Amino acid sequence: MEKPNISAVSALTYDLTLKKTLFMKNPDKRVPMASLTKIMTAIIALENPKKNDQYFVPKEALVGEDSMGLSAGEILSLKDLMYGLVLHSANDAAETLAYNYPMGRNAFIKAMNDKAKSLGLSDTHFTNPSGLEGDGKQYTTAYDLLVMTNYALSNFPLFDKVAATFTYDIPYSSLHKAYYLENETNLLTSYPGVKGVKTGYTPEAGLCLVTYLDYDNHKIISIILGSNNRRQEMKDLLDYSLKSEGITPPPHS
User: Which of 90, 126, 85 is nearest to 109 (CA)?
Assistant: First the structure.
């Protein structure tokens, strides 16, 4: 069976059920990761929840580009920020989580790098919690992202649930305004069995996507980095991976 010819700089598809690599292209190449950074941001936030579950939004957290529209002075729960972080790839949610960490934002970024080391990820480095360019060298590999994503899905039921959610409402309260969140393109509604995870894009990183598929008793994580067409290439990789295991891929759009 012919392997997909993809534009992505790096890619890796792995069957967690069989512990088997199904496709790879430069899986150990260090590349920028854009908002896939937020997978580690979620891990650190979920491992270190605030006892009172009140996350204050400082004005410093209101960084540009993708956001859930937070306002300085609002207070949200970890759960609500997690939905903003994953569904909207919200940089303001990432920064709010970092600023609420004990000892603050710099300590949060240090915890991200320490966690990477403890997971054996020697080709990953973080300089901010959002994935935005411009404040240092931030990189990873497809292999390291596989380990990171599997760790998040395996250890945090909330991450698993959030990643698989298409829309989420945060009702108005005295602490914050109302929010309506919708998941970015990750085949959630178009490829049966896809349970989401994370998109990413910067001009430097190109189009990036980590997708989790649970289909026909197989749990598969697929990663595409530096693609020109992540949506189509991810569908091609998932189809190829299932066929390589003798499984007929589901009809999809």
Answer: 126
Whole-angstrom Cα Rg for the chain: 18
Q: Select from 37, 34, 30 the least CA-distant residue to 152.
A: 37
Q: What is the DSSP string of 46-99?
A: HHS--TT--EE--GGG--SSS-----TT-EE-HHHHHHHHHHS--HHHHHHHHH
Domains and CATH numbers, the chain: 10-244 (3.40.710.10)
Beta bridge partners of 12: 24, 223
> Three-state SS for 112?
helix
What pLDDT sits at residue 189? 92
Length of the chain: 253
Determine if the pTM surpasses 0.85: yes
CA separation for the pair 129, 84 (Å, rounded): 14
176: nearest Cα among 55, 95, 20: 55
Question: 167 by DSSP, 3-state: which?
Answer: strand
Q: Give residue-wise pLDDT tens across range 158-198.
A: 999 999 999 999 999 999 999 999 987 689 999 999 999 99
Q: Measured in whole angstroms, how far is the alpha carbon of residue 193 from the centre of its chain?
A: 18
Q: pLDDT tens-digit profile of 205-218? A: 999 999 999 999 99
Residue type, 225: L
Nearest to 23 by CA among 251, 245, 196: 245
pLDDT digits (tens, 9 = 90+) for 217-228: 999 999 999 999
DSSP SS3 for 218: strand
8-state DSSP, 173: B
